[in-house]
Predict the structure.
Amino acid sequence: MSAAVIVFPGSNCDRDCKVAVERSTGEQVSMVWHAETELPKGLDLIVIPGGFSYGDYLRSGAMAAQSKVMQAVKKAAEDGVTVVGICNGFQILCEAEMLPGALMKNSGLKYVCKPISLTVANKNTRFTKLYGDQTEVVMTQGNGDGNFFADTETLKRIEDNNQVVFRYVDNPNGSVNDIAGIMNEAGNVIGLMPHPDRAFEAELGSADGATFFQSIYDSL
């Protein structure tokens, strides 16, 4: 598998994502700076990491969505390359209109940072295929703008198309329909607020994030 992590000014989980993918799959991961206009050739996976890209000015992810590299990411996604946006990466994908909906301030107006239980809402995806009979997973939440919102029409389309991949067991931020992660209609782009990159080994409290990355690897 050929994989790359996009690095923005203010990213703080780029190295986490690199290590998580490498240890979960045994493959090497490249780091790509946001000002690049081209991606490495032959990529199978692009990860947009968590953090505070551009200091979360304007709106979380809004400035990063306009970075030069995002045009190449959009083109790769259109060509079928798997794209994963985690936390701030989810916000960036929504701002770039690669995923529907938006991420707003948490309903409690507090930053949430803790292990979080999720239900696997759709096991028939390249991101969840190896969870098997496991219906609940644990990852780590860390956000202040994780409240997923979509208008009624968009939400109906997301639900009807089975685009919801993960839901919260105990919703920590007010996300509509307990949505923690969604994918695009083509099924190759996912955004999720919880961090699989912080839950890829038992020593971190959960290895369920490793299964997430291994599912992608197994789908190639």
In short: The chain has a mean pLDDT of 97.
